[in-house]
Amino acid sequence: MILHKTERITLSQLNKMELLKDLDEVTKNLISKYLDIEDEYRYALRVMSAKLENLDDYCQCYFDHNPIHHMESRIKTPESIIEKMHRREYDLDFETLKTNVYDIAGIRVICNYIQDIYQIVDLLLHEQDIHVRLTKDYIKKPKVSGYRSYHIIFDLELYLNNKIRLVPVEIQFRTIAMDMWASLEHELKYKSHNNINEEDKEKLKQYSKDLYEIDLNMQNIYNNAVEGTKKWLIMKN
User: Fold this and answer.
1) What's the pTM?
2) 81-136 per-position pLDDT tens digit
3) Where are the domains of the chain?
4) Which residues contact 101 (CB under 8 A, 6 or more apart)?
5) DSSP string covering 28-46
6) Under DSSP, is residue 8 helix (H, G, I), strand (E, B) or coil?
7) Predicted pLDDT at 2
8) What share of the chain is helix, strand, coil (3-state, %, to 5)?
9) How far apart are CA 109 and CA 128, in angstroms?
10) Catalytic positions, please?
11) Which H or E run contains 135?
12) Overall average pLDDT of the 182-192 stretch
């Protein structure tokens, strides 16, 4: 189930926003060209979301278990795209955007257990019309901050205007516990303007480790209690 979708911004709405007032013509032109193809990313988002829901149904049918707790989807706003391109020091042109910005279409998938994440990823890898562009496993190798998640970017084959086009979609997989930690840690950084002291940073890292241990223990309880559950190899840090 998708709980949240980003509303579409039309060019006429964008022209009324504060965003455009101080922008140069190059940036305005980039945004205008992006809005012309935004439907490709929205289409890709719908197709990928449907694939995930179908895989969840498949697991319910064959394993008597729904690995996906819930999903959220979003399309990056023009403002976020421009901010990222500035931050990465990319040229503000259309081809650079299409070549280097992979996360315009994004889905966050919240799973019940760690093994559910790897099960869904494994099933996705057998799909014929999606191709892996990039993976980052922050579950087995968390970030310094303690952040844990599994990021994967797929190029999705879409038939558009009589052509097959590859449209990137980023998927972030988390357990319920990982999502809770990441959401609250993000809010703490935002509210404090990233001024969290070193002592509290260490506490956050420890809480991430504690939650990971809880994730593993809850998973083991589930596996011990439910017969026929497929075991998936999880590497402990």
Assistant:
1) 0.86
2) 999 999 999 999 999 999 999 999 999 999 999 999 999 999 999 999 999 999 99
3) 11-225
4) 76, 81, 84, 85, 90
5) HHHHHHHHHHHHHHHHHHH
6) coil
7) 46
8) 50, 20, 30
9) 21
10) 170
11) strand 130-137
12) 92
- What CATH number does domain 11-225 carry, 2.60.40.420, 3.40.50.300, 3.30.460.10, 3.30.450.40? 3.30.460.10
What are the structure tokens assigned to 186, written together?
């993000």
Cα separation, 19 vs 88, whole angstroms: 19
**Model pLDDT, residue 161:** 84
Q: How far is CA 14 from the centre of its chain?
A: 25
The band of 168, judged by pLDDT with boundaries at 50, 70 and 90, is: very high
Q: Helices 25-63 and 114-124 sit at what angle, rounded to 10 degrees?
A: 110
Band of pLDDT at residue 165, cut at 50, 70 and 90: very high
Q: Which residue matches tokens 């966050």?
A: 108
Token pair in block for residue 4: 């949240």
Strands 105-111 and 68-75: antiparallel
Report the distance separating Cα 237 and Cα 187, nearest Å: 26
Tokens of 38: 């935004």
